[in-house]
Design goal:
This protein has 140 residues and is of the alpha+beta class. It folds into two domains: 2-51, no CATH class; 61-139, no CATH class. The protein has five helices and seven strands; from the N terminus they run ββββββαααβαα. The strands form three sheets. The chain has a three-stranded antiparallel β-sheet with strand order 2-1-3, with no helix packed on it. A hairpin with a 6-residue loop joins strand 1 (2-7) and strand 2. The longest helix is centred in the C-terminal third of the chain and has 13 residues, at 108-120. The model has no long low-confidence stretch (mean pLDDT 88).
Length: 140
Amino acid sequence: MKAVYVKKGDLNFIQEFPAPDDLAQWYVVSVPDDFSVAGKQYDPLANSWSVISYSAPVIRRISKVAFRNRFTLAEKVDIYTAAKTDPMVQIMMDDIAAVTTGVDLDFPSLSDGLGYLVQLGILTAERAAAMRADGSPSEV
């Protein structure tokens, strides 16, 4: 066993040696020599270690290209066809084209526009929901 120091304000930060100058800000903890606690977080109340769980950030803004790629070719054809005679569809296309910082999947007008495409029969409700699903890192 060996002693390590765990920072009280950051239970993921471990210092093996030398002893920190501000020792009052650290827990002194005995750990196995094989350092099997690496990648774990110290719980001072239970005097135990747990796996650190990291959750990926939720992506709610994706690039225009990524958003367009969510539509199938058949859906795009139907949208472009409808835009020739339906100003609402044309406005939705123009709004997406005007975006400069990426498509906000929570933007109310986007939800309304996708809902309108559902009313027209271009999308199903399930497809509209899929269009608004969380983005992936490759879509940013």
